[in-house]
Design goal:
The complex is a heterodimer of chains A (about 110) and B (about 110). With about 110 residues, chain A is mainly beta. Chain A has no helices and eleven strands. In chain B, a hairpin with a 4-residue loop joins strand 7 and strand 8. The chains are: A mainly beta (about 110), B mainly beta (about 110).
């Protein structure tokens, strides 16, 4: 049973480019969460999605960031016109319909903006 | 506001016990979690405790919760070099929004 998959594992973008981060939840999980980890800090909640719905995006910056979880395919976190401050590790987690009490995390995507 | 605090570093000798501490501020926290992060990897859920429990034991891991002081600890018995990692405490008021601490970097000396 594969865990949460994220790709790419490492992503380098120049300032002003777009970054697309993908997350495939665990089999049987329909809830996806994105977190950001800045260097030497804990993870911060960004957004919670279910299939085709954004449930809570209160932790996501209002501009340049967007997320989706289509009916088919992985969840995508998209960052437009990246800036150096976007450099971080982005983690995706998923949980089952039983509840959010057990969130299982992917290996993360480490974004570096040069 | 919501805040979770942990000390940044802990160093122990192989075979000793490690105790990693965490304090939180949200009194409505329902679940409290411990995650382990190895270098370059994601977070591995180690264990969690429901707020109406005082203690939970799982093999070498013991979680203690002092709800009055909002203090959570993780004890690792017989610490091994493979236990070297960053350990994150997280709280949740029963919703999906986990509040994470900054992590404690555990170094196990051979």
């Amino acid at each position: 049973n594969a865990g949460v998959m994220q790709n790419p594992r490492h992503l380098v973008r120049r300032r002003g480019q777009e970054a697309r981060l993908r997350c495939s939840p665990m089999k049987g999980h329909s809830h996806v969460y994105w977190y950001r980890q800045l260097p030497e800090e804990g993870l911060k909640f960004m957004v919670y999605l279910q299939k085709e719905n954004i449930i809570d995006e209160s932790g996501m910056p209002k501009e340049r960031f967007s997320a989706e979880f289509p009916k088919e395919g992985p969840s995508i976190l998209r960052i437009q016109q990246v800036v150096r401050g976007d450099s971080a590790a982005y983690f995706c987690a998923s949980s089952s319909d039983r509840g959010p009490y057990e969130q299982y995390f992917g290996p993360g995507t480490r974004l570096t903006v040069t | 506001g919501e805040d979770v605090e942990q000390s940044l570093f802990l160093s122990v000798r192989e075979g000793d016990s490690s105790v990693i501490n965490c304090t939180y501020t949200d009194s409505s926290s329902t679940y409290l979690y411990w995650y382990k992060q190895e270098p370059g990897a994601g977070l591995q859920l180690l264990t969690y405790i429901f707020s109406n429990m005082d203690m939970k034991q799982d093999q070498r891991l013991t979680v203690l919760l002092n709800k009055k002081d909002k203090h959570l600890s993780l004890r690792i018995a017989d610490t091994q070099t493979g236990d070297s990692a960053i350990y994150f405490c997280a709280e949740s008021p029963g919703t999906y929004k986990y509040i994470f601490g900054t992590g404690t970097r555990l170094k196990v000396l051979a």
